[in-house]
Design goal:
The complex is a heterodimer of chains A (310) and B (282). Chain A is built from twelve helices and no strands. Chain A is mainly alpha-helical and 310 residues long. Chain A has two domains: 2-76, no CATH class; 97-309, MetI-like fold, CATH 1.10.3720. The longest helix of chain A is centred in the last third of the chain and has 38 residues, at 218-255. Chain A is flat and about 80 Å long. The termini of chain A are close together. The relative contact order of chain A is 0.14. Chain B has 282 residues and is an all-alpha fold. Chain B has a domain at 80-273: MetI-like (MetI-like fold), CATH 1.10.3720. Chain B has helices at 6-16, 18-35, 37-40, 72-108, 110-126, 128-139, 143-169, 173-180, 185-221, 233-240, 249-276. In chain B, helix 4 runs antiparallel to helix 5, helix 4 (72-108) runs antiparallel to helix 9 (185-221) and helix 9 runs parallel beside helix 10 (233-240). The chains are: A mainly alpha (310), B mainly alpha (282). Chains A and B meet through helix 1, helix 6, helix 7, helix 8 and helix 10 of A and helix 5, helix 6, helix 9, helix 10 and helix 11 of B.
Chain lengths: 310, 282
């Protein structure tokens, strides 16, 4: 148990360093803006006074490290500044929109994991049959199809032609179906490949043969013994996948006019609203890092034999 | 007397892989359409003709016309030059950044490794698409910046891969022997580590061309990529989405082009991986 605590301690320290680095990049990026960053953020119509005010509030008139220090100090107090567009607090705008993004990400992950695992099991247990070929075809399509095109195709089919589901917005529960399926499709490909490969591996092991010899049914052996052990690497893929999914969420939210932080980010980029861009990018990176730590934790819970720590 | 040449064997294995062959055929066809575009179509991809706007596919316009009356097939063929160019150049940038950093990280270990890995961690925690998006937000839109942003976005993947390769190769006897002969570290990295890493790097590069095409076209789709009127698949798809209710072909065909190109590169990448190095199988 001490080893585990030590490992998680290292892991947490590394995560904090990563996030501090991300925050630094986020602060420094603004300085890469061509010309006078304060002028760019304020807009061409703004008066000199407004430009100076923005320069001062963002700390652009100070050395980069001081600006970074000020940013971190505010961050500790839960303050990421005000939107250059609406003057609302960046934190409160992100918190209003974040639940939508999380809802979409979790629904997408759930669909990706459920469909992917089922397909992987079907392919592994019916190896080299048409089921196996079909699932591997679906898998490669899943990782190759751009989410924004898949989303548009689904809208054309289910919203425009069949008129079964809404094309955009987040008013009803049915609005969640198309976007979460769109975003989950990529994971379906990866998860089913991983499940198939691991299950085939596990099915060749001694204890599975023993279970069969005891007269247990195929279904029982697969679901009680094999899948459980094949699940661990799959879990990692699902966890690591979450990051890609968040990136894809930016595009998916744009396709379906979903009111999450991804769409807010795109709107903010068009409006050159840098405090908001900084806040959202930092939020995304934090979610990514936290999910990775949680994945590591679950890893050891699901399989006590896994000792990531020395 | 035939010498067992690994590349010849790999190509034979690749030729037996039907999916990979299909991928090669698709890329060959796309490459031909794109390269020979001026010979294959008489339409100017930029020339507007409002009197023939939003025409559905016909003999005259096989894939229809867009909202400004431009021939969609011509735009897809010319747009492919840009989209495929971005894919190849962005992967080259990603490799140019990622491979040296990764090799140094894995070969030297210690604090060099620690610093480079923290940098890679930071880049990875942005995730590929968001890193590219954030860079475009700062650098601005346009072809050059899209290539840079996409390349940097994919770079950390190559840092990770190259590091792993260097870690295992530095334990090899011939590297130890070279060290023993007093060959300099940089020479060893160049002559032994890099050369022996080429196979997995080529596989990974092929698989990543698909990802970079998706990322770059995604920027275009959002309106943050290559700017109109220049034809680019993602930008065309983004412009076409406004017409999905009555002229869905504006969006479906450019998207199909992206999908086919990415699918083909992924099939070739998978095939190369199986043929060259079965151990790489994820």
């Amino acid at each position: 148990m001490r080893g585990f605590a030590l490992y998680m301690g290292h892991r947490l320290v590394a995560s904090v360093i990563t996030l501090l680095g991300v925050a630094f990049i986020v602060v420094a990026l603004v300085r890469l803006l061509p010309g006078d960053p304060a002028r760019v953020i304020a807009g061409l119509q703004a008066g000199q006074e407004e430009v100076d005010r923005i320069r001062a509030t963002l700390g652009l008139d100070r050395p980069l490290l001081v600006q970074y220090g000020l940013f971190l100090e505010d961050l500790v107090h839960g303050d990421m500044g005000e939107s250059a567009r609406t003057n609302n607090s960046v934190v409160s705008e992100i918190l209003t929109r974040l639940p939508f993004t999380l809802e979409l990400a979790f629904a997408g992950t759930a669909i990706g994991a459920a469909v992917g695992i089922l397909m992987g099991v079907a392919a592994a247990t019916r190896r080299a049959t048409w089921v196996d070929h079909l699932t591997s075809t679906v898998a490669v399509i899943g990782v190759s199809i751009p989410v924004y095109w898949l989303g548009i195709l689904l809208i054309i089919l289910f919203a425009v032609n069949l008129q079964w589901l809404p094309a955009a917005g987040a008013e009803h529960l049915s609005s969640l179906i198309l976007p979460s399926f769109t975003i989950g499709m990529f994971s379906v490909g990866l998860v089913s490949r991983m499940t198939r490969a691991n299950l085939l591996d596990v099915l060749g092991q001694d204890y599975v043969r023993t279970a069969h010899a005891k007269g247990l049914t195929d279904r029982f052996v697969i679901y009680k013994h094999a899948l459980r052990n094949a699940f661990i690497p799959v879990l990692t893929v699902i966890g690591l996948q979450f990051g890609t999914l968040l990136g894809g969420a930016v595009l998916t939210e744009s396709v379906f006019a979903w009111p999450g932080i991804g769409r807010l980010l795109v709107d903010s980029i068009f409006a050159r609203d840098f405090p908001m861009i900084q806040g959202i990018v930092l939020t995304y990176a934090t979610m990514f890092v936290v999910v990775n730590v949680i994945t590591d934790l679950l890893y050891t819970v699901v399989d006590p034999r896994v000792r990531l720590y020395g | 007397m035939s010498v067992r040449r690994p590349w010849v064997q790999a190509l034979r294995a690749l030729a037996r892989n039907r999916a990979a062959v299909a991928g090669i055929v698709v890329i060959a066809i796309l490459g031909f359409l794109v390269a020979a575009a001026p010979l294959l179509t008489s339409y100017d991809p930029m020339q507007q003709n409002l009197s023939s706007a939003l025409r559905p596919p016909s003999a005259e316009h096989p894939l229809g016309t867009d909202n400004l009356g431009r021939d969609i097939l011509a735009r897809i063929m010319f747009g492919g030059r840009i989209s495929l160019l971005i894919g190849v150049l962005a992967v080259s940038i990603a490799m140019a950044i990622g491979v040296p950093l990764g090799l140094l990280s894995g070969y030297f270990g210690g604090w060099v490794d620690m610093v480079i890995q923290r940098i890679a961690d930071m880049m990875l925690s942005f995730t590929t698409f968001l890193l590219a998006l954030a860079l475009v937000a700062v650098l601005g839109v346009g072809l050059r910046n899209v290539i840079i942003a996409t390349g940097v976005g994919v770079a950390p993947q190559f840092i990770r891969l190259a590091r792993g390769l260097a870690l295992s190769l530095r334990e090899q006897a011939y590297v130890e022997a070279a060290t023993g002969f007093g060959v300099s570290d940089l020479m060893i990295l160049w002559r032994h580590v890099l050369r022996n890493s080429l196979t997995p790097l080529i596989v990974y590069a092929t698989l990543n061309i698909g990802i970079t095409i998706i990322v770059a076209a995604g920027l275009g789709f959002l309106g943050l990529g290559v700017q109109p009127p220049t034809p680019e698949w993602g930008t065309m798809l983004g412009e076409g989405r406004d017409y999905i209710f009555h002229a869905s072909y504006l969006a479906t065909f450019p998207g199909l082009a992206i999908f086919l190109a990415v699918l083909a590169f992924n099939l070739i990448g998978d095939g190369l991986r199986d043929a060259l190095d079965p151990n790489l199988r994820a």
